[in-house]
Amino acid sequence: MSETSPGKTQKLDFSAINKTTAKSFNAQKNLIKRLFKGNTVLCETCKQPLKLIVPTDKQQTGKYGVFCKKGCTDIELELEVVL
């Protein structure tokens, strides 16, 4: 059988992708934690302060997450007010 025959399956190595994804996820999680603590965090691209937008009692619909003025950073979060 040749390696391209239908009877042979090819294993894919996702380890590099998984490492990159995990690293990115952890970096975003830490960034969000710093913002929730009240720390100022700058956008890596434009160096403007990032803004954390969360739902409030008065405004419970909209786009929530972490954003910079220029739109370089745009991390949307699924949040809801818990009363």
UniProtKB/TrEMBL annotation:
Species of provenance: Shewanella benthica
Organism superkingdom: Bacteria
Protein name, UniProt field: MYM-type domain-containing protein
